[in-house]
Design brief:
The protein folds into two domains: 130 residues, no CATH class; 131 residues, Phosphatidylinositol (PI) phosphodiesterase (TIM Barrel), CATH 3.20.20.190. 44% of the residues are buried. The longest helix is centred in the C-terminal third of the chain and has 14 residues. It has eleven helices and twelve strands. By secondary structure, it is an alpha/beta fold. 37% of the residues lie in helices and 21% in strands. The two termini are 16 Å apart. The strands form two sheets. Strands 2-3-7-8-9-10-11-12 form an eight-stranded parallel barrel, surrounded by six helices. It has a two-stranded antiparallel sheet with strand order 5-6. One of its GO terms (biological process) is lipid metabolic process. It comes from Rhizobium rosettiformans. InterPro entries: GP_PDE_dom, PLC-like_Pdiesterase_TIM-brl. This is Glycerophosphoryl diester phosphodiesterase.
Length: 282
Amino acid sequence: MRSDPIFVEHQGHRTLLKWHRGRRKASDPEFTPTRILEAMQLGASVEVDLVVHGDHGFAILHDLELDHGTTGSGLVAETSAGTLRQLYLRGNDGAPLSDRVMLLEDLCDLLNANPAHPEALLQLDYKEDLSRLSPGVIEKFAEAVSPVATNMILSGGDSAAVAALAAVTPGLRAGYDPTYVGVLDDLRTAEDFSRFIAAALKKAPDAAMIYLDYELVLAADAAGMDLIGAVHADKRRVDAWTIRTIDSTTLAQVRRLLQLRVDQITTDDPEGLAEALAEGKS
C-alpha cells in the first residue's frame, strides 16, 4: 500500500514534504479545502498564501489580482469579504472549480471543526508587507488564528510584519524568507553567502524556520558555503522552496538537498516526489 507523501528519510534525517498551496500532486488545483484538510489530518506540512482584502482581513490567495486564480477580476485589496466568498477558484487549466475562495477565518473555522493531527503544520505565507497591516487587520488575524495557532507557522519576506502578527497570536510560530528577486546576482562567493545568511538570522531572531529558494541553497553549496548547516548551527530549521516538476534534474537537486540535511522541501507534487525518490532506492 502506498504511503502518504509526508516525509522522506535520508541517512537518519527526516525531511518533510510540504504541500505547496495545498497540493498533494501536480494535477491538484490550489487552495482547495478538501486537500488542505486532508494534509492537516494526515499530519503533513502544507502551505497557503495570505493577501489582505478590502474589508481588512485576509484571503487565501497567492496573487494580488483576482483574474488568474479566481472567477473575479481586479485587486484583492479592493474587493470585499462578501464578494470574495462568492468567487470560485480556477483549476490548473483555468476552468472554474466548485470550490469558492476562502478567507482566513473560513479556513481556521474548518480546522477548528476538524482538528488537525498533532504533527500537522499549516504555513500561512503572508505575501505583502507591514504597510498593509493596520490595527484592524492585525486584530482580525489574531481572532481567526488563535484557536488553531498551535498547528500553524506564519512566514513572509517582511520580518517586521511577521513579528507584528505573531506577537498578538499566542502559540503561533514564526518563519522568515530572506530570499529576494535577483539575490543570486548579488551573491557569488562563500563569503557573500555567509554574510547573507548571518544577516537573515539576525534580522529575524524569533523565526523558527528559514525559507530559502532551493537554487540559492545549491548555489551556496557550489560556492563552498553550507547555508543549511549555518541555520542549524543557530538552532533553526530550513525549508527549501519550490520543486515544481519532478524530472532527472530536480531529482538530483533534491538528493543533494537531502544530503545537506534540509528539514523541509516545498513542492507542487509531494506524491510524485516521494514516489520518484522511493523508486530511486530500489
